[in-house]
Amino acid sequence: MHTENTYEFGLIGLGVMGRNFILNVAENGISAQGYDLMPEKVEALREEGAGIGRIAATSDLNTFVSTLSTPRKIMLLVPAGKIVDQVIEELLPKLETGDILIDGGNSHFRDTDRREAYLQSKGVFFIGAGVSGGAEGARKGPSIMPGGAAEVYPEIQPVFEAVAARYKGKPCVAYLGPGSAGNYVKMVHNGIEYGMMQLTGECYQLLAQVGGLKNGALSEVFGRWNQGRLESFLVEITSVIFRQKDTLDTGALIDKILDKARQKGTGKWTSQNGMDLGIPVPTIDIAVSMRAMSALKADRETADQLYEKPQGSLVDEAELESVCEPALYFAFVMTYAQGLHQLSEASVEYGYDLNLATISEIWRAGCIIRARVLDDISSAFREEPGLRHLLLSEDFVRRVSQCVPAARIALQHAIRNGIPMPALSASLSYFDAFTTGRLPMNLIQAQRDYFGSHTYERTDREGSFHTEW
Predict the structure, then answer these.
(1) How far apart are CA 415 and CA 417, in angstroms?
(2) What pLDDT sits at residue 47?
(3) How many whole angstroms separate alpha carbon 223 and alpha carbon 108?
(4) Distance, CA of 430 to CA of 46 (rounded, Å)
(5) In order of start, what are the domains of the chain with their CATH numbers?
(6) Cβ neighbours of residue 15 under 8 Å, at least 6 residues apart?
(7) Looking at the whole model, is its pTM more than 0.70?
(8) Nearest to 36 by CA among 78, 73, 72
(9) Enzyme catalytic residues
């Protein structure tokens, strides 16, 4: 509890996300003070928190800082980028040694490393914490991914565990590792999210155009899937979306929404960093590219009139659903596998010491990529601590093998009908490449040596070799 002028937790940035998060904090018995430059946001928090009794808000920074108990625990929920640095500079003169700043936005992990080193030189701790679940998650329980100095985490642990989502009673938050570990894990989480969203959209297009399913039937299909192994936040909301009526016109809202998808950059960062590390994440890569493709709306409409599409034929609804369900499950698993492999390699490269079982566990509730299969994924890494890759798990060999034929059939239907399914295709090609003992890279190495004398290795002896072709 707090005295009249002492609050246990402070939050800067009272937009929808910040306001919901601080209300969550206060409702869980932790006194909280909010700050925002905009008086209307301060007033909105005061109104929404009026019945809680452990919450206050101000637009005066001195008041905000002076009313927090020490060591101060101040969370920033402001847009990533320069604004974070600006807020830090405004706060620094008012902070004391041992105070803790927490960045809860989608900051690039390199920025988090830079800020932690800078604040450490000033005697202030810095925690980069990924927060997933959107506005609703912030209010009712998000998945939280904190990283930073291990010795300071116990100071904020009670707050995070109080507000986090719960899976079978266990809070979906855990200390992940030093430095920018939390922001890095959140970045990859968002990359996986890009892949899963693209895959869901591809199944929608195939079911609608090749199966002839209308919105009501699509809602029922995704609803059924959400009762089984595909149970997940994205499948659940997809079922709801197809039922939504348009409040501005007649018909379904989904049919009035422009097919241009925006992005804020976290998926692109995942893809870029995967290439930096030399880790293949093709499902995530193509999901990012398809958002860029969607922006070419005018050109796509022109090209649509210039080229003929294959004269495909409708496929029986039940038959198509029977291949799309396992195909989507297969591709979801491939996307998780790629993201977790990237986390595994980044853990070594950046010294994070990540625990993939723990990460999978805190994704099981509260976040956008929550799904039933994460229970099985966390078990796979828990039972085999040295597991190098999800596809090498005995359990997932069985699960994936059952779904591969359906993924191939779904793609055949798409190709025959000119339906783009690049994320499913990338997922299947990733699987086929990962399970192929000898790839044609011997030819590529020969070509590189031919035109650039780059040398090659041999299968029958050690060393590097060059041939005068």
Answers:
(1) 5
(2) 87
(3) 35
(4) 51
(5) 9-179 (3.40.50.720), 186-434 (1.10.1040.10), 438-469 (1.20.5.320)
(6) 36, 41, 77
(7) yes
(8) 78
(9) 186, 193
